[in-house]
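Ticket reopened. Same input as before:
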Amino acid sequence: MSTATLTLNDQAYEFPVTVGSEGEVGIDIGKLRGQSRAITLDPGYGNTGSCESAITYIDGENGILRYRGYDIDELAEKASFVEVSYLLVYGDLPTRTELDKFRSRLVSHSMLHEDMKKFYEGFPPSAHPMSVLSTMVASLSTYYSNEDEEDAVEKNIIRLLAKLKTIAAFSYKKSIGQPFVYPRNDLDFVGDFMRMMFAVPTEPYELSDVVHEALDMLLILHADHEQNCSTSTVRMVGSSGADIFSTVSAGVSALSGPLHGGANQAVIQMLKGIRDDGGDYAKYIEKAKDKSDPFRLMGFGHRVYKNFDPRARLIKEAADRVLARLGHSDPLLDIAKHLERIALEDDYFVERRLYPNLDFYSGIVYRAMGLPTNMFTVLFALGRLPGWIAQWKEMRDQKSRIHRPRQIYVGHTARPYVPLHER
Ligand code: ACO
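Engineering reply: fixed in the latest deploy. New output:
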């Protein structure tokens, strides 16, 4: 085994080096503080591996993404979201029998406890569906046993995978004042979700094949992305032994921010703003480059991808396909393509290797499907759920220690208390 040597105050310390199955190198500094009293400082964790994981591999330099060894392009083209969920959570693609059993377990857990419907009455109509989602997911822990035994844990995994789409669709129905549509066991995952979103009691509902196919693919593209902000949150919260529902609820909250999953909604707001401002792309590129201007090109840049995000390419193709097949045109897609073209030729973006990420085009596809803008991040959460669960399960199986980073204290040194009348 190779080692790395650190010299601190003329004293050398040796640390073992870990090499992953794709050749990634990590210096195991587990004994650093014990030996030297020093810690590493890495705000934002850009250089810190928080775990070993066998779930997702990303090579950001070469635009590679694989789930459990399978390339994202191949999964997006050939697999279904339910198959990919099984792959992520249980480690291998299911056989026909395993898939049938998994599907039938999912459909038999898709209804919500009737009392949970009352919670929706308490939210104001303006509530963001992501806040509703995280609240409702956390509330599942009040209904289901949090025993740590394998059977109970496994059942809660299935419950969560089955119920999230019902919770999500009910949030939308509540926000537009329509009656809840209950799940149906004879429909597949996407068909059932879309029906719960858009069916009304007064008329039949039909889902077009192109929308069905595109949404299934979009969910696959969102299904996992190794140790991103929401997944690290899931591992962090889960490491304390909190139950799966509270843990995933924290992941939903982390995802809601505009620098993470909330970017898909922010991209559409940005594109609309540019359109309403006369469509002057160049002005917005200049604003994004101006360090004194808080404006950022939403949907651009990524901590890990320093090449094209492979998911963005697949989503851009899907946007063209869905719009063409539905016979729609969307001026926001034209604005997005112009912005992308200008940005990719601009030195600022080229030097920093800033490319469109998956959020840049996903909103355009969701819009074409008739999905409301404030539900975009909820769709991201629906797609990401199997990844969060897989990562949580792996952390649990690894008997991970509680996550507890250290800090470098830079505040006041000891000072005496000053009585109130002397301040
Ligand atoms: N527009 C303009 N400049 C940018 C952008 C952007 N979207 N993204 C990064 N930069 C610049 C930064 O200002 C910085 O410039 P500097 O070196 O001159 O200071 C440089 O590029 C590096 O950026 P960081 O912010 O250090 O990169 P980091 O890895 O911390 O952040 C992030 C990544 C949050 C994705 C960032 O690129 C961003 O804010 N993008 C817009 C929001 C977005 O699309 N988020 C979705 C990410 S994908 C996902 O979570 C699903």
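The pocket of acetyl coenzyme *A is lined by residues 44, 228, 259-261, 263, 288, 296-303, 352, 354, 357-359 (CB under 6 Å). The longest helix spans residues 150-176. Please confirm and we'll close it.
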